[in-house]
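Protocol step 4 of 6: structure prediction from sequence.
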Amino acid sequence: MQAFDSTRHWLYDWGGANVDLFLAIHRTLPDGWLWLPEFLSAVGSYWGAPAMVVLLLVWRRLQGRQAAPPLSVSLLSFVLGLPLAIAAAAIAKIVFALPRPFVLLGDSVYRAAFAPDSQYTMPSGHAMYMGVVVATLWPVLGQAGRTGVLLFAVAVGWSRIVLGAHYPADVITGFALGWACVALVAPLAHRVARGQPVAGAAR
């Protein structure tokens, strides 16, 4: 148990820097501007997944058949990667069972108008979703588009810290988890999108 606490102290608590950074970011915005992080959290939630699917479907249709395959891969990567990421995040929350910031630091650090969907904090579900979105769109966007979607993902992560819902470590872990899940399903998405046989399917 002592070894676990020591590992957590350096890998999650960062020797106390995780909390210090949380408090520094949390205090960057006055209460009168809380509508901004609340808006970012609302549009950066995985409840927006259906809109993302519609966007990719419309985009693929507008591009025509010649340009459709990359968008088909992105669509399948999103459809396959998001459920995997949600399941992985749910398991991680239960396994690590790390409390929300306001549990350890007091209710004064919680500024959101809505209750969190889980009592545990790591990883951030919003950051996980943005990791899936960024990884899905990355191959089909140009440099400007990549910069824009990455900045949006950072803004959503920032909003979760400002609202007191997550520590920086939760946001970083969530983003990495979402990206990793898309990368994991990408080979399968490529095969299905191009009509290639899936390993074991021909048996």
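Step 5 (inspection) to follow. The chain has a mean pLDDT of 84.
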